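Hi U.,

Before I forget, here's the chain from the pilot set. I'm dumping it here mostly so it's searchable later in email.
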Amino acid sequence: MAITGVQVGGSGAFTATPNGALQAGSVPAWSSDDSNVSIAPAGDGLSATVNLSSAETGSAFNLTVSGVNSAGATISTTVSVPVLPAPPPPATGFDIEQSS
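Structure:
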């Protein structure tokens, strides 16, 4: 699935699928270069929920997952995640004006 973005003040679910074997016991770690991003990884490290603060002003953030492959080498992949505008607030009523 393509990276489509995360709404300001919202969250997105991300999955990392290794293209080979990981070192036994190695749990991938998720990180971001944006302080407005918080990450809640799954126990196995292969998926995570990414939460974006309502204070976000950037147009994108980098999301990285790192781990150790079966040969003992550190591996990582980074993607750019677009920041999507927050949805408009829901209506709470109507404004009534006289038009004639």
